[in-house]
């Protein structure tokens, strides 16, 4: 028989056990909530407290390579190294108390300084200043941007208070080769010029992060790591040939110095594709050491500068009057070296001569301003303007390089009496090297103007290949007109005063020079100062490559003859580089006079 006295303790035990189980169940539910259901949220919250920590996971900026895959711009690992001042003092204290056999800071700091290149006093001051600000400081930056070699030497010291974090930095293995084109980065890692800037969407990387909790001893608490992976930039492949670029930069540098010019450029374009194979200029910039270059030399003048093209535009005028005016290489005009036209405009040639019955081919060979002006009358001013626009004058190029300019061409309705004729031989308007090369591409390429390009592709980090979107090729003149122009420009190379000097043995080439006056900024021209150009293509009977050489204010020789040596060597190198076969047929000589 159970009495009240025996039931009461048992009941109390059951009740107590129930309470304990209820509390325990509550703890379990709460523990599951914290560690399972809302684990991510609580870990994120924990990162905000004093024991939380994190690191940036750096993505690598994409590489810029030439047409063969050779690196023009890449990234290397550098290291930012930091010290733990509090741990340094603790270790020193343990050494004094004979609890540690480690090296004291006084002997380690000279070893660190020898590796980083700092003074011993500077390294010791870094720690001293951090402790003076906060006696419990766990962080002091030792040095940024250390090399892998320096990092390994520091790691070999094997001291727990020295930690290095790696990050990518930009490097240009060939220095100034393509520097004006490739561009450079700022100290803050922002692209500032050239393709580094205009193609930043391809090249830029996205940094990731790693966050975690650390115990009071600085050790990462397992299971608290949260990673957001970095995404590397893409590989930008250019149409440029690095070796050709290097050679042409040396060549134009020599020519600029030989002629005492302000600057010079050499541009090479593949006729059938519009791909730019070289864009060399001098002075140039070394992206590894931008401050060594004058500010005006830190961008591409090939794309940024505009100029009056001079007689190179006679080729465009000749193509227009053949295509729209029914003219041919044997069509003639009567012109002297000094012509006054019915509207009062006066045009003179660079050399005096009596009345000549010039053929159109002869006008180009002798580069007669008066002769081409008379031929220009055989189509309307509006038609000639329309052809200039179709050739791409004043429209820029499809390259889209940062800082690229456009030529200046006013509508023919605004041409005054003098401009009506001057525009036929490249005065009273401006253009750019890409525009001029594009126009001659149409002349050489069966009348089809190919959009210029300098980017072959962008290969993203995930392997996706993106090619640039380019305008459609444009038929500017007929194939027949193109053939006649190729023949005439070949005769310029054969019969002009510089023919012997520009010839490339074994090859048929076509050329045209231009000597443009330079504005004085007040509506006139500078006396005796010129911007000279020589543009041409080869082989003349089946054009493969266009070469354009410019000199800004050559002094020792002020005419476009100054460009001849560089053009001849440049074209020779281009034909060798791309193994273009020598000629197997002979040119047709055209008469200069009717």
Low-confidence stretches: 47-52
Considering DSSP H and I runs of 4 or more, what fraction of the residues is helical?
Answer: 25-40%
Q: What is the count of β-strands? A: 21
What's the level 1 CATH class of the largest domain?
A: Alpha Beta
Domain Penicillin-binding protein dimerisation: 58-188
Keywords: Cell cycle, Cell division, Membrane
InterPro entries: Beta-lactam/transpept, Beta-lactam/transpept-like, PBP_dimer, PBP_dimer_sf, PCN-bd_Tpept
Organism: Microbacterium pygmaeum
Describe this structure in words.
With 594 residues, the chain is of the alpha+beta class. It has two domains: 71-171, Penicillin-binding protein 2a (Domain 2) (Alpha-Beta Complex); 242-577, DD-peptidase/beta-lactamase superfamily (Beta-lactamase, 3-Layer(aba) Sandwich). The chain contains 20 helices and 21 strands. Strands 2, 3, 4, 5, 8, 16 and 17 form a seven-stranded mixed sheet that branches. A hairpin with a 5-residue loop joins strand 16 and strand 17. Helix 4 packs across helix 5 (120-133), helix 10 packs antiparallel against helix 20 and helix 12 runs parallel beside helix 14. This is Cell division protein FtsI (Penicillin-binding protein 3). GO terms for molecular function: penicillin binding. Belongs to the transpeptidase family.
């Amino acid at each position: 028989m159970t009495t009240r006295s025996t039931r009461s303790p048992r009941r109390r035990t059951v009740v107590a056990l129930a309470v304990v189980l209820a509390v325990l169940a509550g703890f379990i539910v709460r523990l599951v909530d914290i560690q399972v259901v809302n684990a991510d949220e609580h870990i994120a919250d924990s990162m905000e407290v004093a024991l939380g920590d994190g690191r940036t996971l750096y993505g690598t900026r994409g590489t810029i390579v030439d047409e063969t895959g050779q690196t023009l711009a890449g990234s290397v690992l550098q290291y930012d190294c930091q010290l733990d001042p509090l741990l340094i003092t603790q270790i020193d204290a343990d050494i004094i108390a004979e609890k540690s056999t480690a090296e004291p800071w006084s002997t380690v700091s000279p070893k660190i300084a020898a590796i980083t290149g700092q003074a011993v006093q500077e390294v010791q001051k870094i720690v001293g200043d951090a402790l003076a600000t906060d006696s419990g400081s766990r962080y002091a930056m030792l040095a940024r941007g250390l090399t892998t070699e320096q990092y390994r030497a520091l790691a070999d010291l094997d001291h727990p208070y020295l930690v290095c974090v790696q990050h990518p930095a930009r490097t240009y293995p060939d220095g100034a080769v393509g520097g004006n084109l490739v561009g450079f980065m700022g100290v803050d890692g922002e692209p500032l010029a050239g393709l580094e800037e205009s193609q930043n969407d391809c090249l830029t990387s996205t940094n990731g992060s790693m966050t975690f909790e650390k115990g009071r001893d600085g050790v990462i608490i397992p299971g608290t790591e949260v990673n957001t992976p970095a995404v590397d930039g893409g590989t930008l492949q250019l149409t440029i040939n690095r070796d050709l670029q290097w050679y042409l930069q040396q060549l134009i540098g020599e020519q600029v110095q030989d002629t005492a010019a302000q600057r010079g450029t050499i541009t090479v374009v593949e006729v059938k594709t519009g791909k730019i194979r070289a864009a060399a200029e001098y002075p140039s910039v070394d992206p590894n050491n931008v401050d060594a270059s004058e500010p005006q030399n830190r961008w591409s003048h090939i794309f940024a500068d505009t100029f009056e093209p001079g007689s190179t535009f006679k080729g465009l005028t000749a193509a227009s009057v053949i295509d729209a005016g029914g003219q041919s290489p044997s069509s003639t005009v009567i012109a002297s070296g000094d012509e006054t036209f019915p509207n009062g405009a006066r045009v003179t040639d660079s050399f005096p001569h009596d009345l000549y019955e010039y053929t159109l081919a002869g006008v180009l060979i002798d580069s007669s301003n008066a002769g081409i002006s008379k031929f220009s009358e055989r189509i309307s001013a509006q038609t000639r303007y329309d052809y200039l626009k179709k050739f791409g004058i004043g429209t820029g190029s499809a390259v889209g390089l940062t800082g690229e300019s456009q030529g200046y061409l006013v509508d023919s309705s605004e041409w005054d009496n003098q401009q009506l004729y001057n525009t036929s031989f490249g005065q009273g308007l401006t253009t750019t090297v890409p525009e001029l090369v594009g126009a001659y591409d149409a002349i050489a390429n069966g009348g089809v103007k190919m959009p210029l390009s300098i980017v072959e592709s962008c290969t993203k980090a995930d392997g996706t290949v993106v090619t640039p979107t380019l305008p459609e090729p444009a038929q500017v003149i007929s194939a027949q007109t193109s053939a006649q122009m190729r023949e005439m420009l070949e005769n310029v190379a054969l019969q002009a005063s510089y023919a012997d000097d520009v010839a490339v043995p074994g090859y048929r080439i076509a050329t045209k020079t231009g000597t443009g006056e330079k504005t004085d900024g007040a509506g006139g021209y500078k006396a005796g100062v010129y911007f000279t150009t020589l543009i041409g293509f080869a082989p003349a009977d089946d054009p493969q490559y266009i070469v354009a050489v410019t000199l800004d204010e050559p002094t020792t020789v002020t005419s476009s003859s100054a460009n001849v040596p560089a053009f001849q060597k440049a074209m020779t190198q281009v034909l060798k580089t791309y193994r273009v076969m020598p000629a197997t047929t002979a040119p047709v000589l055209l008469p200069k006079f009717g």
